[in-house]
Amino acid sequence: KQEVTQIPAALSVPEGENLVLNCSFTDSAIYNLQWFRQDPGKGLTSLLLIQSSQREQTSGRLNASLDKSSGRSTLYIAASQPGDSATYLCAARSVGSGNTGKLIFGQGTTLQVKP
Amino acid sequence: DTGVSQDPRHKITKRGQNVTFRCDPISEHNRLYWYRQTLGQGPEFLTYFQNEAQLEKSRLLSDRFSAERPKGSFSTLEIQRTEQGDSAMYLCASSRGDRVTDTQYFGPGTRLTVL
Questions:
Q1: CA–CA separation, B11 vs B102, rounded Å?
Q2: What is the sign, positive or negative, of the torsion defined by CA atoms of B50, B53, B56, B59?
Q3: Model pLDDT for residues B20-38, shown as the tens digit of each residue
Q4: Closest CA to A36 of A65, A75, A81, A7
Q5: For B88, which residue in chain A has the nearest alpha carbon?
């Protein structure tokens, strides 16, 4: 059974700092791994999707990496801004889930970027 | 794309009452998912539809829960005889298909409070 873990649960950094959010998963047989952003009381916004055959994906100041052998993914945020403050969730789509496409989510890391 | 919409955004009900939520996916998206998210946790999969067919239900979906997607368009999620433990954010997502590159797009969610 796939389990996804995100540590730490919360992170506070000063504006301008580069930071890394961590995600680990127990079953390396995945189709892809996605990173989402969630603002308080809102739905999820997809940030990046990394296919199992890929090592990383980039979008603007965001870079996500995937290491299936170690069961880890990281989300790197460069030059953080107060507007980046949100909860970041990673989710794995496991081979074991067959054709459902269902995502297994971590608990999220709540990021606060202080001006 | 107008995005995934959900209605209502908030619902407060008394224990024992029935509630129904609606989700309108992105047009032409074949897949529709329902997830439930409790405070401080990541979303958990409830069920999904391929067009109008409901193909999988999580063990989280007790007999009090029922979901439909008539004509493969919008979907409804009904909870009968609500309990306080049903209080959560109910999220709907849709995707174009089941390819590993297909991103799930989430709606804003319906927050249910059972008194």
A1: 31
A2: positive
A3: 999 999 998 999 999 999 9
A4: A75
A5: A41
Band of residue B99 on the pLDDT scale cut at 50, 70, 90: confident
How many interface pairs between A and B have CB atoms less than 8 angstroms apart?
70
Contact flag B106-A44 (C-beta cutoff 8 Å):
yes
Tokens, residue B86: 């049903």
pLDDT values of chain A reduced to their tens digit, one per residue, 115 residues: 899 999 999 999 999 999 999 999 999 999 999 999 999 988 999 999 999 999 999 999 999 999 999 999 999 999 999 999 999 999 999 888 777 889 999 999 999 999 9
Q: How far is B53 from chain A (nearest CA, A)?
A: 12
Q: Which residue among A34, A99, A107 sits closest to B103, beta carbon to beta carbon?
A: A34
- The CA distance from B115 to B15, in Å, is 6
Interchain contact A106–B (C-beta under 8 A)? yes
